Amino acid sequence: MLTENLPPLNYQENGVAQGYTTELVQAVLKQADVQADIQFMPWVRAYQQALSQPNTLIFSVTRTPERETQFEWIGPVSPRLIYLYKLRSRNDIVVKTLADCTRYRIGAVREMASTKAFAKEAGLTEAQMELAPSVESNFRKFLLGRADLVISQDWSAAFMMKSLQRKPDELEPVLLLEQSHQYFLALNKQSDPALVQKLKQAFEKVQQSGLPEKLRNKYMR
């Protein structure tokens, strides 16, 4: 079970796995009677490992057409709203269209679906963006002024600002970039078919148990 620090979906606090999807995954494992450790690592490494190693699951993953045939999908586990943010105090930044973004330095996480989609839509190369290995480092660089704008999920942005001792209302969303995809659990395509079926059935039972709504209340409200 591989993941990254993407709060409040999945993250570590004092070495303990936390988050909405993390607890959902733990409940699925328990329901399926499957033993597995959750490992946190940079997204690029986790993604490549999940692609190459059978019986490996990665979360939380955006299900896109490009990735559709690469994994066995379990979910969805959460909606996904991606915004482009600026600091409310930056009156010098004016963004009304994607074309306006080319005038500014954009902070984003390397290899994330939202990063790739934005770069393609805006006609930017990765060299023109301020890329970071994780959500936390992306926000740290943004708050230090190394990026003018930052790409983030709405609830992740609020969570990161609080965790970095800043107020969420210091952020101002300037563009809604994405609302058509959702987050899923993704299992390596060469995984044991019996394991895939067991996890899918366990996920359905956990969904019916009411746990997802309890976790949404805990982490996202």
From TrEMBL:
Protein name: Transporter substrate-binding domain-containing protein
UniProt superkingdom: Bacteria
A matching Pfam family: SBP_bac_3
Residues of the Solute-binding protein family 3/N-terminal domain: 4-220
Taxonomic source organism: Undibacterium luofuense
